[in-house]
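Holo prediction. Input below; ligand is magnesium ion.
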Amino acid sequence: MSESPLIKLEGIQKIFFTDEIETWALDEIHLEVAQGEYLSIAGPSGCGKSTLLSVMGLLNSSTEGQYFLDGEDVASLNSAEQARVRNRQIGFIFQAFNLIGDMTVFENVELPLTYRKELKRKERKQKVQEALEKVDMAHRMKHFPSQLSGGQQQRVAIARALTGDPKVLLADEPTGNLDSKNAQIVMELLDDLHKQGSTICMVTHDPRSALRAQRQVTLFDGKIVDDQPTSNLRLETEVLTSLPA
Amino acid sequence: MKTLNDILLGLRRLSNNLAFTITSILVIVLGLALYLSSYSLSYNFSKPLSYAAGDRYVTVSTYYNDSEVYHFGSNFDGFAFNRLREQVTSFEEFGTYRFIKLSISDGELPRQYVGAEVLPSLLRKPGVEPILGRMFQDEDALPDSQPVAIIGHNIWQNYYSADPDIIGKTSRINGQAYTVVGVMPESFDYPFSQHIWLPLDTSRAVQPEGLHSLGVLGVLKEGVSRESAGAEMDALLEQLVADYPAYYSESRSIVLPHTQTFVSTGDVGQLFQAVTLIILLLATLNLGTLLFVRANNRQQELAIRFAIGASQWEISRQILLESLILCVIGLLLSLGIAEFALGYIEERLRINMLSSDFPGTMSSWIDFSMDARAIGIATSLTLLVWLASGGFAAYKATRKDNNSVLAGGSKGGTEKNRVVMARVIVGFEVLASTFLLIVCCLLTASIIAAYRMDFGTPTDDYYTGMFELWDPRYEDEGERRRFLETLQRQLTEQGVVVDATVGSALPGQGGFLRRYNIADRDLSQDQQYPEQTLIWIANNYFQMLEVPLVEGRYFEETDNADSLPVIIVNRAFAQTHWPGESALGKQVQLDPDNGGVWHTVVGVSAHIIHGSPLGNYDNNPTLYRPLGQYAPVVLSLAVKLNRPLTEVEAEALLLEAAQDIDRDLAITSIRPLQRVTEMSMQGMDMVAQYSVAFALGTFILAIIGVYGNISRSVTQRTNEVGIRRALGSSNRHILWVFQREAMHYLLWGAAVGGMLAVAVSGSLAGFFNDILSFVPTVVPSVLLLIGVLVTLASYLPARRALTIEPGEALHYE
Ligand SMILES: Nc1ncnc2c1ncn2[C@@H]1O[C@H](COP(=O)(O)OP(=O)(O)O)[C@@H](O)[C@H]1O
Ligand SMILES: [Mg+2]
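Structure of the complex:
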């Protein structure tokens, strides 16, 4: 519909001030993500990947720079308006799942919907049901997070991210705490979501996971040092992985 | 060596974290010191006598059920006593005594002391030797023997100026010559705070009804319980009634430990112990949480210790050792504070309750210092507190998943169990705090209201005294009346005295209950007539005490033994029986069971509180009769002064005036009217102070416990705040989520704690009559207070969590 990108970051800078130490977590970031794109963000530990995702998700404010989400200058909104944007337009998936321990699976997934006044109980229930079915967790609705495996918890977390029909899914090392089998399931889920039209930004170390995206941005010391389609990378990776250990 | 090092390490750590250390010790001290001082209060009033076999000293009283009111007291007569003494087998010593007030009139002014006529063997029983002279022999009690007396140390020192040659001297006691044969040591206030003794001869009581008002006191045989002694007494009493139905009516015995005969802390003492036990429980819970949180804060350290090979026991040991150090410091401080508090209480009690009018109140066995038993209890309680709180913390700390702590923590979510447990703890704390605060505040409010109560008369410029006209010279009632009139005249002739009056009771003093009936209708119910206080007063009583009349007239000169029997009733009496109409001219019959005299109401007076304002004295119907128509034996005297006098001046004034008329008559209990009304509170100021202390203690524990726990649980959920914000919750909504949870505690505490508190307070209504009338003010205030605490406890940390950027909140540990 619109030619403009879904996400547009201009000159984003993020400095953490702790105990008189300044950490330049992000420095002069220019990034555009198109509607329906599947982006992976790579780079060594501490280079600013999570911080970038947090800024995109309005979880951290940037020190400098502008951020347009779907053409709207979201960085300059007040906190109540930002909360509304997070609730309606953004879905989060964390490495540590971040489910609320004393709420059931159903309640966790329902949580973002409860912040929307227009939804009736029945509609919420319907949406939660659908989201849980997508991640194949509908049978565990009454369980508590501690009763689930890591992979199951992450699937619930994805359901929670999906249930509000966000414009963009932000995933920070979604497979970081999972074994390879569960990681595979989660990655396939994201693939499916992308195929159904979701825009996804995902941080990952794992080259295999990264290859599922269409485009990869690489950060180093808070700067974008590389930005190219993953089709270019595929060859390199194959060469690397086929080398004898 | 290892332990010593560990202790040193523990001490260093505690001193490094002073906030934690001080809070923990405060918690322990609050719990222990409050418990100890209330325990010691009850215990000290019920300690056994310090003589050999002191715990076997008992008193025997009888009581008879009379319209559900039990009467009991020194109510044996000599004949019954002699018979029982012959038959009884449960006692090693079965003796009797009789309280008497003895005036000694050798010196410049007669002085009255509380003494006892006592069976010589009973006085010898404790085995306490006189410091001068000799003990009574059985022969001293024989009718034809020379009258002898033994005096106490206090009388010897003060009245006889410690005369070293006192033994063998004669002294004028109640107008008769007695030879002083012995002086007892200072602490000997036997049987109940008496300080002068005459031998008692019961052998002359060969017929029932002679030698009345005897108190029975004995020492149980070893191994005999009070219950079985009581059962034996009951059987013997039953026989006595069967053999002499004309003289004795059915009654039952009550065998009490000697030291609990006249004074016990009763329901209030029990309530205090229960209250302080709950406070101690709260303190233990608080300490447990504090220790656990501290262990939790050192999770990383404990996990590392675990990883390098410390066993769970070694980790527990650390926590237990640290908590033991805290508990020991807390124990020592508590003992010191409780000892100090008890010293204060003892002083207050001696000031407030020490009155020779009432025996046994502050006898020497009531000693408030902490003894081995109290220290033992304190130590065992400390051990319990230590094991409960330290054990709880150690258990929780060692059950942590150390692996995940080291690996950086899993955010799969808190365990459901832990959350439930935390909620149960906070719920209990809110409930217990609400309960305690309501009970203590209701008690305090009720007592303060009693203190504020208007006794119906100004008390500032009045001095009072008491006297008794038992002497045979006053056997004729006309003589008594003449004495009273002369005394009043004598006093008003003194320049400093504006006016003087007499009566059988002054404001603040209780009168005797008398049955009555009215002419309009029969008041009897189940063949019982109602009873109310009857007081005999001089004609100027009301005017002098500035008590206005509602209608009618005061008593006058013409109300004498030959004229129409008249009565004044107070407003409450008039309103009870003749609402909406004038009481004047109505007829009241006293002692209707025996066809008593009818009296005409000539006046209605405004209200005066007779007795303690704690009872239902505010609206108590009261009857007044003129001294002109009958003069009782036991009387009180009040003078209105035109300038303040010191106690010594006031004593001289009253004693001299009485001595001028009767050289043997001593006025006693000389004190300002203000003191009389204060003393009618029976030490309730202490109960109020205790309650305030309990309430404060509870409140501090609530701040530490309730506030601490709720705010900590909210802070721990900073991560959740991050999640909720990531999902798009508004700040207001997050504040509301926490608020709503906190409100659950409040509702819970209000419903259960509040209801329990009102129920428990209601059960005290027999004594604190109006206690429930403060429910509408106290309960909402306490709930508001707890509500504010709970609200702040969730609001402040939640707001703090919201100031953190959600991105950081998500990584909050
Ligand atoms: N809340 C914070 N306060 C201070 N420094 C931070 C904070 N969050 C991240 N940093 C710093 O910013 C840099 C980037 O961190 P992050 O974005 O988490 O890296 P990555 O996710 O790529 O491993 C690091 O040097 C990190 O220490
Ligand atoms: Mg990261």
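Residues A 16, 18, 23, 25, 43, 45-51; B 808 surround adenosine-5'-diphosphate (ligand 1) (CB under 6 Å). That is the main takeaway for now.
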